[in-house]
């Protein structure tokens, strides 16, 4: 926080609280009234200063990201240049276009496109797919613009140069962003490089908001306290600092970066607007958390009507062209993965067979889309009579809800323990994907006895094909609470996008390579 905020904290807090105003809203929320002569966009100790909203603590990180992006783009353009034209001066001298100048222009315009697409916005880094989407869209728009300019002015570019630079540069950019994000996430998990947040609202909504923010420390929200009107309220791990009307004073005292107001807050429309005015000339962001939960950005459209922001929530789609494309890509991807992993599949099959001479594959009835049953394949990781021994182990279940799991299951073989640790036992499900019974990514395929215990909401998992991997697998698998596993699956069902699938597949690979943190047993 700057000098202006400190001045307000030390000298103006009492003035804000005691200053009178004729309107009823100002009487109810006197701390939202600014000292006389202070309006929107002005400094608390002067006028004319525009508010600085950037995450200053991220300036060094974002500077490093820019450098990584520049290196990625430069390497891609250089590789395309050398691959297409080589390095022989005699050959380069015969070209009608000086491609070395064009290459430099490519790099400059690519970096400009990244800036124009807000890919260096500190609010987007570290969490979710929006950062990657901004990078991809910047690259796409650049090359669309290049194609339009080339066509309009009949410019003859070397197609090989452009067609190599675009995908290679985009992949390098996404890779560099992922590397940078891994470092940022580790810092945020230690409580560093995060926004200092003050929550406002009623007890139930603030408690739910605390839980949601704690699920995703990589989003960078560190909750310092809450202002709620419930007398004597206690929120686990978060101090209650006073009623909602104290929000501005507490924000100044705590030196927060963000004031997050839940939709349940009693401030009302006018009070919220006055709070926004009071925060306008500070470095504090105002965030409003709507009451809708687990709805992703692509399904949300904000439309202002007479100054009232109406949030349109699109219904999830379970059919249509995108779902058909997903089915085709799933089957093709499963075939490719099967061919690439053929040596691994053969090796695991031999190891399972040699251990006890039993069958290599285990076929189990699972419930798929729309409640249809199918036989799911796995490499056998247990003794041959594992299903018959299940009743005697029911009393020591480590699973959540209707799931049955044992951390140290005595039925697991020695080979089974190894292939389970690295999720190799799941690979035969590629056959289920090829047959159209499963997807590469989707909700966890349940057993019939589990489905029998489903509540109405949980049955929405059956609206899509189950997946070999999903949000449940990259978020803890067997270590997840049942309610959390259901929430993740329903989020995927209702908010599926191709980019989300790619992110889950990538993170699945990382989880498999680091089995100690996968929660697989």
How would you explain this protein's 3D organization?
It contains 18 helices and 11 strands. It is of the alpha/beta class and 521 residues long. Helix 15 (448-451) links the parallel strand 10 and strand 11. It has helices at residues 3-18, 24-28, 59-85, 89-92, 99-116, 130-152, 159-189, 203-215, 247-254, 268-280, 321-340, 342-356, 414-421, 429-434, 448-451, 471-474, 482-495, 498-513; strands at residues 195-200, 221-227, 240-242, 258-262, 285-289, 300-305, 308-313, 361-367, 373-379, 439-441, 467-469. It folds into 3 domains: 3-50 and 194-291, Rossmann fold, CATH 3.40.50.20; 57-189, no CATH class; 321-517, no CATH class. The protein starts with a helix and ends in an 8-residue tail after the last helix. Residues 1-29 and 31-53 have low confidence and may be disordered.
Structural features:
disordered N terminus, two-stranded antiparallel sheet, five-stranded parallel β-sheet, Rossmann fold, 11% strand
Give the helix tally: 18
Largest β sheet strand count, sense and barrel closure: 5 strands, parallel
Number of domains: 3
Question: Kindly state the mean pLDDT as a whole number?
Answer: 80
Residue windows where pLDDT falls under 50 for at least 5 positions: 1-29, 31-53
In which range does the helix fraction lie? 40-55%
SSE run: HHHHHHHEHEEHEHEEEHHEEHHEHEHHH
- Based on secondary structure, the structural category is alpha/beta
Our estimate of the beta-strand percent is: 5-15%
Radius of gyration: 28 Å
Total strands: the figure is 11
Spatial arrangement of strands, main beta sheet: 3-2-1-4-5
Distance between the termini: 47 Å
